[in-house]
Amino acid sequence: MRLLAMLLLALSVQTARADGDALSWLQRIHAASQKLSYTGTFVYRSGDQAETSRIVHIAGRHGPHEKLETLDGRPREIVRSGDEVKCYLPDSKTIKIDKQTDHKVFPALLPENLQDIGEHYEVSTGAIERVAGHDCQAIVLQPKDKLRYGRKLWADMKTGMLLKSQTVNDKGEPIEQFAFTEIHIGGKIGYGQLKPTFLAQSRTWHIENSGAVAASLAASGWSISPDLPGFRKVTEMRRTQGGSNEVGHVVYSDGLAAVSVFIEPLSNKTSLPPPGLSHQGAINIYSRQIADHLVTVVGETPAESVKKMADSVEYHKP
User: Fold this and answer.
1) Cis peptide before 273, with omega less than 30 degrees from 0?
2) Phi, psi of 117 (to 5 degrees)
3) Phi, psi of 68, deg, nearest 5
4) How far from chain centre, in Å, is Cα 67?
5) Residue of 161, 183, 254, 268 with fewest CB within 10 Å of its CB?
6) How buried is residue 190: exposed, middle or buried, by Cβ count under 10 Å (0-12/13-18/19+)?
7) Would you say 162 and 133 are in contact if contact means Cβ atoms under 8 Å apart?
8) Could you tell me which residues are beta bridge partners of residue 164?
9) Do the beta carbons of residue 153 and residue 167 sit within 8 Å?
């Protein structure tokens, strides 16, 4: 019995050490995404769909500067300077201007505060594997409920830079993946590499500015009370979308996954999406009509979560 107790104690110590090591890797990943400059090419995969993108990222003293361009399919280029984001769409000769929210995108997926992740995910280290020619430590995030997806992350052993991310369903099956095929971390990266490819020809393009400003939707009679443990409101604003400047936008996050709620007057819609559920890769979308408004919930979460969020939206005439 004593031997069994000692073995169990040793096992619990090893488990605690492994969890602590895994959390320290998450801290390294976040720090790398904030402090390191890099250039590279990564591939997004979901089902039989794939898209290749080239990224240039400079971690400047006054915030990040970044250019992301797609290399296949319809051309698209996104240039970020601080919290301003410009999306160049040459097919429609349009420039979309928006503000960066707290929503995280690859490879900068992790928040500064990792406490919420530890509360809602079991975090452990996996094997050491090769990604884009780099030895990487795998980290596994297993959700503690069915309201969020699992994740598997691969971090460069030397720098902590996230080189691969995989989203998995409750059966452990991958439903979405980002992975660098080549990357250069550090070194001198000139700001000239951030210049938009379409800058000269875009001077006559149509400009759509989201005009996002902080706002209280409660003042207009809206309330959102989701029963989603761990998801906290991180942004609440009004923005211009589809020609309307009356679109409410609220973002909730558990520190890793994000869910957005859009509330738009039906009078601004020339055509309506069918109510109910749809999905794109790991993104689930749920729409319903309330008080002459279209409520659309978009989340990188299982369908149950976006439906719960949509069903919690209520309107009371102020």
Assistant:
1) no
2) -65, -45
3) -125, 125
4) 17
5) 268
6) exposed
7) no
8) 154, 179
9) no
Nearest to 281 by CA among 42, 103, 45, 41: 45
**Contacts (Cβ under 8 Å, ≥6 apart) of 48:** none
Question: Are 77 and 196 spatial neighbours (Cβ–Cβ below 8 Å)?
Answer: yes
Which amino acid makes up residue 214?
A: A
Alpha carbons 283 and 299: distance in angstroms, whole number? 5
Dist. CA 119–CA 96, nearest whole Å: 37
* pLDDT per position as a tens digit, 153-212: 999 999 999 999 999 998 989 999 999 999 999 988 999 999 999 988 899 999 988 888
CA gap 58, 56 in Å, rounded: 7
Distances (CA, A) of 18 to 124, 150, 183: 6, 18, 28
Closest to 132 in 3D by CA, of 185, 69, 67: 185
Average pLDDT, the chain: 87
List strands edge to edge, sheet with 174-185. Answer: 121-131, 134-143, 150-156, 162-168, 174-185, 38-46, 49-60, 63-70, 77-81, 84-89, 94-99, 206-209
Please name the amino acid found at residue 178: F
Helix (H, G, I), strand (E, B) or coil at 75: coil
What contacts 157, CB < 8 A, 6 or more positions away?
A: 128, 134, 135, 136, 137
The Cα-based distances of 248 to 82, 213, 232, 269, 279 in angstroms read 23, 10, 17, 15, 22
Cα distances (Å, whole numbers) of residue 111 to 14, 30, 114, 162, 286: 27, 7, 6, 13, 26
The amino acid sitting at 180 is F
pTM of the model: 0.87
> How many DSSP H helices and E strands does the chain contain?
3, 21
